[in-house]
Every structure is written in C-alpha cells, then in structure tokens.
TrEMBL record:
Xref: Gene3D superfamilies: TusA-like domain
The protein, known as: SirA family protein
Annotated source species: Thioalkalivibrio versutus
Protein family membership: Belongs to the sulfur carrier protein TusA family.
InterPro entries, alphabetized: TusA-like, TusA-like_sf
Source domain of life: Bacteria
Length: 76
C-alpha cells in the first residue's frame, strides 16, 4: 500500500464504529493527507466505498489480507 499520514486501527469494531472513527480522524487531517484504516468487519468494504462517495474523500485503495481489511482514504 502507498504511503499514508495517519493510521487508524479499527480491528474488532463493528459497523458503524470504523466509519465514525475514520470520520473523526479525517476531520483532524489536512486536505490531501491520507488515512490508513485497518478493520476486521467484512461490511467495512461497502461502508467505506459509500462513505467515500458521500463525503468527497477518495478511497485510493483497499485490500483484504488474512481476515483484515485495509483502506487508504485521501481527504478531499
């Protein structure tokens, strides 16, 4: 995965907590900065895709590895 400015470990949290934590983290970041999120909730993939479209933040990349989901979101 690409470089990122901040990391959020939302492992073990279920919807909507990963989204809420990401929203709070992004609010404290500058435009153009990248947030790396680690989640274990399988619903997080659809949640972060919808979140990105609704908020104007770019979902740059996402992948699943070893039962964990990784996301890179660039603040818009």
């Amino acid at each position: 995965m690409a470089n990122f400015d901040q990391e959020l470990d939302a492992s073990g949290l279920n919807c909507p907590l990963p989204i809420l934590r990401a929203k709070k983290a992004l609010a404290a970041m500058d435009a153009g900065q990248v947030l790396h999120i680690i989640a274990t909730d399988p619903g997080a993939v659809k949640d972060f895709q919808a979140f990105s479209k609704q908020t104007g933040n770019e979902l740059m990349e996402h992948k699943e590895e070893g039962g964990k989901f990784y996301f890179l979101i660039k603040k818009g």
